[in-house]
Amino acid sequence: MKTPAQQTVTFGGRFAREFREMAIPWRAEEAPDPQLLMLNEPLAIELGLDPAFLRSSEGLLLLIGSQVPSDATPVAQAYAGHQFGWYAPRLGDGRALLLGEIAHADGRLRDVHLKGSGRTPFARGGDGWAVVGPMLREYLVSEAMHALGIPTTRSLAVVATGRPVQRETVLPGAVLTRIASSHVRVGSFQYARATGDIGLVRRLAEYAITRHYPAAGETENPYFALFQSVLAAQASLVAQWMLVGFVHGVMNTDNMTISGETIDYGPCAFMEAFDPAAVYSSIDEGGRYAYGNQPVVAEWNLARLAESLLPFLHDDQEKAVELAVESLGEFRRQYSAAWSEGMLAKLGLQDGLDGDVTSPLLDDLVAVLWTGRVDYTSFFRSLGKAARGQAEPVRGLFPDPAAFDAWAERWRALSPDADAMDRVNPVYIPRNHLVEEALAAATGGDLDPLHRLLVAVTNPYDERPGLERYAAGAPEDFGTYRTFCGT
Q1: What angle do CA 482, 485, 486 make, to 5 degrees?
Q2: What residues have CB less than 8 Å from 264, skipping those under 6 apart?
Q3: Residue 114 exposed, middle or buried by CB count within 10 Å (0-12, 13-18, 19+)
Q4: What does 356-371 look like in DSSP terms, one character per residue?
């Protein structure tokens, strides 16, 4: 019987082998004093990894990429991207590495990927490091998103490196081990297309079809079916973001996955007071990626993917453009349908109700929430109590509840299902003041607040005694919230 330290880990290297034009072999930097901060044991088991091994000295070296199997080929992936609308032809993994692919319990492959593993040829002047706070933020928020049922990359581990990293102050360094269905992005296709090698674009599309949308490969035009599949996945994903009040913060095309998973939890946040213009990223001065702009930005990003795939949508370029435009027109319909269905579920109403009744109800609700600047998460959870006849908790959220009362009368007439509401409206989200509190403590060496917050947000729908502070909004003295990308 093998001891934990003897576990054999095998990484597939299909991307590294097949896309040498987009993958630079590279090694992670050594860490002076690696110390495990967080380990996602359930995820490790799903990946066939022994948590005891990962906690060992050999396991830690694997998690930070310092010691990988002899047949593994870690690579820094190349991609392009529109960043805040401006095209950058060569971005890539500046401080990250793809270690390879590993089989998940569901039989499908997952990428094992590092953040903060050192400078690569794509570093663009950066130091290649990451620090404890932002890496723990990604761990916390991605696992909260997973618990909410929203497609996302996952976090396997965060390891402190023992390396001091200079930011505005000197902070402790860390590496995040991330798991994803793949790291192929819209920006990957932009990069491939920009090389002028149409064969590379075709191979990348075929890889994406095989990896994510095998049914598309059975259609008459697999590349068009791929585009339609990505569009549908992103329409659903962004609708789910909007339904829980999640603000991604940096929806560049290099941060939009082909798989439809949420990726890159840098300047992200959960909206508290309802406001379509809510922006939390310190670098989004123009509000391009504000909460209410996310569906529009997603459609814009998908148009860039369509441009990259255009030669494969149809032999005739004009017809290819027509197909792309027609498909992009479907995005708004699909997004709106997913959002409306989800919002009706949050209100405890059946999807089959008369649209002439429900559409104005939803529109008026948005207006009521916006005018009242009501805490978004608390409103929907308290509304479940109102469906049981306890209206005061939700009324108390409004400075002037008159408009809510008029709306609620119409809503109650449709017989909402309170139990169904509690199944889709979380009690606990990673509230911004609690996230900052936990990350500040963790940076100073105290992980207890982070563990307590994780207990709440990874079981978000079940209200539990003793966790009241995790359901409450920010104190008045918390002030204007701003997040940073951590580089």
Answers
A1: 110
A2: 138, 248, 250, 255
A3: buried
A4: HHHHHHHHHHHHHHHH
Is 422 considered catalytic here? no
Q: For position 352, what pLDDT does the model report?
A: 80
Q: Which amino acid is at 69?
A: P
What is residue 17's predicted lDDT score, i.e. its pLDDT? 95
Higher-confidence position of 202 and 5: 202
Report, in this order, helix, strand and coil percent for the chain, each rounded to 5: 50, 15, 35
Q: Give SS3 for 4.
A: helix
At 307 the pLDDT is 97
What is the DSSP track for 135-148? Answer: HHHHHHHHHHHHHT
What's the confidence (pLDDT) of residue 482? 75
Whether 382 shows a pLDDT value over 90: the answer reads: yes
User: d(Cα 83, Cα 90) in Å, to the nearest integer?
Assistant: 11
Q: Which helix (H) or strand (E) holds 102?
A: strand 96-103
Give tens-digit pLDDT for 415-464: 999 999 999 999 999 999 999 999 999 999 999 999 999 999 999 999 99
The DSSP line for 242-295 is HHHTEE-S---GGG-BSS--B---SS-EE--B--TT---BTT-TT-TT-GGGHH
Two tokens, residue 247:
């603000």
Half-sphere exposure in the Cβ direction for 170 (13 Å, CA)? 3
At residue 432's C-alpha, the angle toward residues 136 and 383, to 5°, is: 125
378-409 b/e with 16+ CB inside 10 Å = b? bbbbbbbbbbeeebeebeebbeebeebeebbe
Helix (H, G, I), strand (E, B) or coil at 76: strand
Residue 5 has pLDDT above 70, yes or no: no
Angle, alpha carbons 63-69-71 (nearest 5°)? 140
Report CA 10 to chain centroid distance, whole Å: 27
Report angle CA 256, 257, 262 to the nearest 5 degrees: 80
Can you give the pLDDT at residue 145? 98
**pTM flag (> 0.90):** yes
The candidate with the shortest Cα–Cα distance to 335, out of 288, 369, 293, 275, is: 293
Residue 81 predicted with pLDDT over 50 = yes
Please report where in the chains the tokens 């995005």 appear, as a residue: 331
Could you tell me if 118 and 110 are in contact, meaning their C-beta atoms sit under 8 angstroms apart?
no
Instruction: Tell me what pLDDT residue 283 has.
Output: 86
Residue from 484, 351, 346 nearest 422 by CA: 346
* Catalytic, out of 50, 93, 111, 254: 254
Helices (runs of H) and strands (runs of E) counted in the chain = 17, 12
CB-CB contact of 111 with 101 (8 Å): yes
pLDDT of residue 213: 98
